[in-house]
Automatic annotation (TrEMBL):
It comes from Gossypium aridum. The lineage of its organism: Eukaryota, Viridiplantae, Streptophyta, Embryophyta, Tracheophyta. It comes from the Eukaryota. This is PCI domain-containing protein. Residues 219-403 form the PCI domain. One of its GO terms (cellular component) is eukaryotic translation initiation factor 3 complex. The keyword NAD does not apply. The keyword Protein biosynthesis applies.
């Protein structure tokens, strides 16, 4: 299923360190030959300071205990540079490690700079050295140290461009350490800056939104509230427009979030229009499944797409997260997706047909008759569908159902807002 692998599209929008978890996943799933993955890792590592890791990969790839001379020399350079940066940042690092001294800091950055200069002889050069030291730590793979120093740098820096760069670095470090709550906070801070009117330029603003959405995938598919929050972010007009024009592959993740999230139905109707508009520009089993059910009403096609969607989820680094349970490994999102996808087919099929042959319906849902009958009884009992089962004829009879007036009003309001934004 490497056909549907989005790593080549997603990778260029990530910091190179964030690509490593994707490569690890692909290697585990054996979507590509090991040699190809190892070469990709070395290519990434050559642009970082993680020389020891690069040496290990080289040994594994070429089955040797020797490493190239340029790697040996590069390691010497990295160690020397790290020591030099450590010395340059030492006065400020020493200050920050002293709890009594840190208590002298205030919310006023100008006051802090003056106080540091007057009392501790710490000036702009030492603050700049802290940034460079933090950045170098990140490039070496010391994400914990980098996150701490970048946080402290932002508290002191008056350089807005550098402060923004430090925030991106802090976000990447928290993602790589899997600190999802903190990462979400940094993501929201970054979004606020990007969406502000004072941001550098409209072009940079759009590009930054695209980067932010790609980075956010790590958080949204790991954080407890992520599946709701990805809809809140990606479905905003400015972000959805950026997806449609520059990153349509992100529709896979928004579509998945809608399918597994039952509480977003009013927004979902508008999203189906996006799927309909973008059918020609981007195709993906998950978006095609929605098109089959809600645009073309091709239920046999939807059944086939469900099987493809299962493979896509299992082989996607963000969707295919595995949970170990004793000797077994499960993919929770896959099970939720298939259950809700089956529900989508059922609901839409029922709204089109007033009397439904259960045998035909269960075939479309990939269920045997006994499983299907149990499933449909529970569904009718727990859902808002007004239906009853005729056991003698083996049919489900749907009662006429008028749309909720309040829902119609909300939908029309959202549609008007969308048209107003486009104007």
């Amino acid at each position: 299923m490497a056909t549907y692998d989005l790593t080549p599209r997603i990778g260029p929008n990530l910091d190179r360190h964030l690509v490593f978890p994707l490569l690890e996943f692909l290697q585990e799933r054996q979507l590509y030959p090991d040699e190809q993955i190892l070469k990709a890792k070395i290519e990434l590592l050559n642009k970082t300071n993680m020389v020891d890791y690069a040496m290990d990969i080289h040994k594994s790839l070429y089955r040797t205990d020797d490493v190239p001379q340029d790697m040996v020399e590069r390691r010497v350079e990295v160690v020397a540079r790290l020591k030099a940066l450590e010395d340059a940042a030492a006065p400020l690092v020493t200050f920050l490690q002293n709890p009594n001294a840190v208590q002298e800091l205030r919310a006023d950055k100008q006051y802090n700079l003056q106080m540091l200069n007057d009392r501790y002889q710490i000036g702009p050069d030492q603050i700049e050295a802290l940034y460079q030291y933090a950045k170098f730590q990140f490039e070496c793979g010391n994400y914990s140290g980098a996150a701490d120093y970048l946080y402290q740098y932002r508290a002191l820096s008056t350089n807005s461009e550098r402060s923004l760069s430090a925030l991106w670095g802090k976000l990447a470090a928290e993602i790589l350490m899997q600190n999802w709550d903190i990462a979400l906070e940094e993501l929201n801070r970054l979004k606020e800056i990007i969406d502000s009117k004072s941001f550098s330029s409209p072009l940079n603003q759009v590009q930054s939104r695209i980067w932010l959405m790609h980075w956010s995938l790590f958080i949204f598919f790991n954080h407890d509230n992520g599946r709701t929050q990805i809809i809140d972010l990606f479905n905003q007009d400015k972000y959805l427009n950026a997806i449609q024009t520059s990153a349509p592959h992100l529709l896979r993740y928004l579509a998945t979030a809608f399918i597994v999230n039952k509480r977003r139905r009013p927004q979902f109707k508008e999203f189906i229009k996006v799927i309909q508009q973008d059918q020609c520009s981007y195709k993906d089993p998950i978006t095609e499944f929605l098109a089959c059910v809600y645009v073309n009403y091709e239920f046999d096609g939807a059944q086939k797409k469900m099987k493809e969607c299962e493979e896509v989820i299992l082989n996607d680094p963000f969707l295919g997260k595995r949970v170990e349970d004793g000797n077994f490994s499960t993919v929770p999102l896959k099970d939720e997706f298939l259950e809700n996808a089956r529900l989508f087919i059922f609901e839409t099929y029922c709204r089109i047909h007033q009397r439904i042959d259960m045998g035909v319906l269960f075939e479309k849902l990939n269920l045997n008759y006994e499983e299907g009958e149990r499933w449909i009884v529970n569904l009718i009992r727990n859902s808002k569908l007004d239906a009853k089962i005729d056991s003698e004829t083996g049919t489900v009879i749907m009662e006429p159902n008028q749309p909720n007036v309040y829902e119609q009003l909300i939908d029309h309001t959202k549609a008007l807002q969308g048209r107003t934004y486009k104007l």
